[in-house]
């Protein structure tokens, strides 16, 4: 760890890391070694990481050599050159790392190529540090039976603030790892609250972009209709670093990918000049922000979270935001119940067809279909802990047979709910965002493919974190960034976890 005392890695940003590189205060190897030391020290307790890239140090040494060469030639280095990035265990990597969704069923499988966003990360100079733990199979094999943050390969992920509390999921390991300084930045996925809930529960910034803004190609699928790739930046005591890290990474991974056709439609949302330009201190001034109290505010159980939410609303007003209170979203009760709305049915149909297609494309794999996964789990109940956790949802998904009339009607209904509900409310009141306590509005944002940013907002008496969430219409990331950054700068409530 020699040299790290000169530059405090835990409280910095990508910009400052690059400055330290240029000034000789830090090298990519020292940075990687710092995170490897953190992982060795903390991961046995937190179980946020499944495996570390055995080539991480060699990649760091290569990054150092490239930096020396670029200094001599004046050539440009990528935005993430020498920055260690942790990936959820669903991102395909053509290297020695496994890609298993936390399950032994895919251990030893080989992907044909890097996932689309992984290609972009490598091109930008990022070092793939390892694979983060997660709620196994997106917690989809049994929606009611498997705890958040549990997977067979790494065990139960632990919340660094409140070990008895939930780390949430499915991108649990991503949030655990960055909040505990085991990685500079991590990439996760969300279908239905899998980024914003772990971010909320682990006191870190989480971004779920507009569906299609980031490529899903080469990532183990869940529900392609709603899947998206987002980011978790590490904590910075300077506050500016957390969001700067976030959007430096975002501009690297957005963009069209021929292997994910949806990305061509959403490329129009990418701002010229990237996202860092929206990190402005007066970003709340004049912003119109809506508040839907039923049912989201009514769902708050913690006394400290309830008072903090009202305090933060006052803070938004003080910073120049215009709050439009007591709004409503039609059919909200049905939207909030995934079984009643049909969202769960769509997930099962899409999961079966998409996971079968993914498995068939693998170079080698112990399983080639959802039916194979179910059979593997039955044969290896001790390995997969199925004596304790069932696979009811997998079995129900296997019974589906693509999109029939019922499933098509559900998709159309959910589309109408979004257009005539959230979108109509946003447009009618000319809102820039909707503010919500915690991740409670995730069904609204999920079925519409809308972007969301969650920011740390406080802690309950037992240390359990809670956040505040800003969501908007498709492509509204620039406005959300301005709002989130200004809020983070004015609130400054986050503190490091007790484990640190």
From TrEMBL:
InterPro entries: Amidase_dom, AS_sf. Residues 31-442 form the Amidase domain. Gene3D superfamilies: Amidase signature (AS) domain. Coiled coil: none annotated. Pfam families: Amidase. PANTHER family: AMIDASE (PTHR42678), AMIDASE C869.01 (PTHR42678:SF25). This is Amidase domain-containing protein.
